[in-house]
């Protein structure tokens, strides 16, 4: 479902004399439906860079990144937008808050974007907000003023509203309390059970051991230094 083939990434720092930083060289791996793959490796190895490439936020110099039938490296911007709407979800630990939009709408928006009825989308959003322990009195408010942990849980509810066939998870359990961490792990298990292919970064080792089927050490894609 998610398949990287011979992928490389180089940053060119135009504001620093055009310095070239090679980060990823010849990476090939993937995640099958129902599988959760953890990216591991030391700080700076390139985990976040790979995630951003798979989501299409960073350009990829060479190779292919296939999500289902679409190669993100070659795709037109409108294909990337459609892919993100229907196929590829991204859950980070940070909510990008849009002022004045009520929490319930923030969470149900991905469903409404794919044509789910307003009632059905709201019902799913309410169920997720309840599961993630966001008190009902907050649902009609914008999450702008919520605590960090509340914003993180709203973001997770939004990320899991639509049943994406492919998902990227960036530290989804970071800084959650025990009960909410448990809810997120159950959501990941549910997503796997319905056949989602997942790639994630999990610094929480116990979480990784529980939900991930395989680990990919990103250091193995470090560019070879010429002798
Ligand atoms: N936008 C960018 N421009 C230039 N260099 C970048 C950029 N993003 C990342 N890098 C470089 O790429 C390398 C990998 O960074 P990345 O953030 O992917 O590592 P990571 O494995 O996710 O680290 P951590 O575990 O600390 O988050 C680093 O050396 C970093 O400086």
Automatic annotation (TrEMBL):
Signal peptide: none annotated. The keyword Cytoplasm does not apply. SMART domains: AAA (SM00382). It comes from the Bacteria. Keywords: ATP-binding, Lyase, Nucleotide-binding. SUPFAM superfamilies: P-loop containing nucleoside triphosphate hydrolases (SSF52540). Residues 2-226 form the ABC transporter domain. InterPro entries: AAA+_ATPase (IPR003593), ABC_transporter-like_ATP-bd (IPR003439), ABC_transporter-like_CS (IPR017871), CP_lyase_PhnL (IPR012701), P-loop_NTPase (IPR027417). GO terms for molecular function: lyase activity. Coiled coil: none annotated. Pfam families: ABC_tran. Belongs to the ABC transporter superfamily. PANTHER family: ALPHA-D-RIBOSE 1-METHYLPHOSPHONATE 5-TRIPHOSPHATE SYNTHASE SUBUNIT PHNL, LIPOPROTEIN-RELEASING SYSTEM ATP-BINDING PROTEIN LOLD. This is Phosphonate C-P lyase system protein PhnL.
């Amino acid at each position: 479902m998610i398949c990287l083939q011979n992928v490389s990434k180089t940053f060119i720092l135009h504001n620093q004399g055009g310095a070239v930083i090679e980060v990823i060289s010849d990476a090939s791996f993937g995640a099958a439906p129902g599988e959760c793959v953890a990216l591991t490796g030391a700080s700076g190895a390139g985990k976040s860079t790979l995630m951003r490439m798979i989501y299409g936020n960073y350009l990829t110099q060479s190779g292919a990144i296939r999500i289902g039938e679409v190669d993100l490296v070659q795709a037109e911007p409108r294909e990337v937008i459609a892919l993100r709407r229907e196929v590829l979800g991204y859950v980070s630990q940070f909510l990008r808050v849009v002022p004045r939009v009520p929490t319930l709408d923030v969470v149900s928006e991905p469903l409404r974007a794919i044509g789910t009825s307003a009632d059905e989308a709201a019902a799913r959003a309410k169920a997720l907000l309840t599961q993630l322990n966001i008190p009902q009195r907050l649902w009609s408010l914008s999450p702008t003023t919520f605590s960090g942990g509340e914003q993180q849980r709203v973001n997770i509810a939004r990320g899991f509203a639509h049943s994406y066939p492919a998902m990227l998870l960036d530290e989804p359990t970071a800084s959650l309390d025990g009960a909410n961490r448990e809810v997120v792990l159950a959501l990941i298990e549910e997503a796997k059970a319905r056949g989602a292919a997942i790639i994630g970064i999990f610094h929480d080792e116990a979480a990784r051991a529980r939900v991930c089927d395989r680990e990919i050490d990103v250091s193995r894609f470090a560019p070879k230094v010429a002798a």
